[in-house]
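Extended Data, panel c. Modelled sequence:
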Amino acid sequence: MKSSPRAPWVAGLAVAALALIPATASAGSQRTAAPHADAAAADAATTTASVDAYYAAAEGKTGAALKTALHNIIKTQSKVTYEGVWNALKVTDQDPANPNNVILVYSGRSQSKSTNGGGVNDWNREHVWAKSHGDFGTSTGPGTDLHHLRPEDVTVNSTRGNKDFDMGGSPVAEAPGSFTDSDSFEPRDAVKGDVARMLLYMAVRYDGGDGFADLEVNDKVNNGSAPAIGRISVLKQWNQQDPPDAFEQRRNQVIFDTFQHNRNPFIDHPEWVNSIW
């Protein structure tokens, strides 16, 4: 597979490693440090090759054929129980600056891992693809898929409810930069792309073939209990506006390495969004 902007984070590993070599280091110290930089670059190349191999069956495809190929790739996964989601989120959403905390998706707040629960200031398990959209509840499968489950403040989670995603509304208390109205929710700018890519993952992963509803994105709000969520025109804008960052990329890798052993293809290849939709 050709290298492309689809996984810029991998190349960044080598750059970061090289940056660790002080510019003023002596020739001797540079000779000592260089092997570490070389090793980091080699690791980055290995990761790139591994990701390319994972998507090999999607090579050269576009549109519906690409969507089908990606579904067949990512449907092979390990399952997490709903109870197990608590501990998984403490790993996938760990605050890079404080290993005792998680980052809440809409609020952006760093909060102690131990404060998960149902209390008003606790964090709980937010289904970004609302579980009523397709009526899958907390069933092992879409109801426990870590690629769309995120920690969020209990009150904010309740405010979002099962609303579709769109622009506008009134500010959301405890979620600075987020807005809501009677039928939609707008997340803060820093996670707009994250939300879009989580929803599009779900639309590819769950196609009705494994006992659950065929989940699809559309360009409406008020989808209710239908296995659909919107609005796709807005989600496409958000995917471009907010490309994958280090936190989202690390999260994808941790889910792949440690928990489900499948990936969100739109984090690795955000350009595939426009190819399919």
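The first strand starts at residue 94 and ends at 95. This feature is highlighted in the accompanying rendering.
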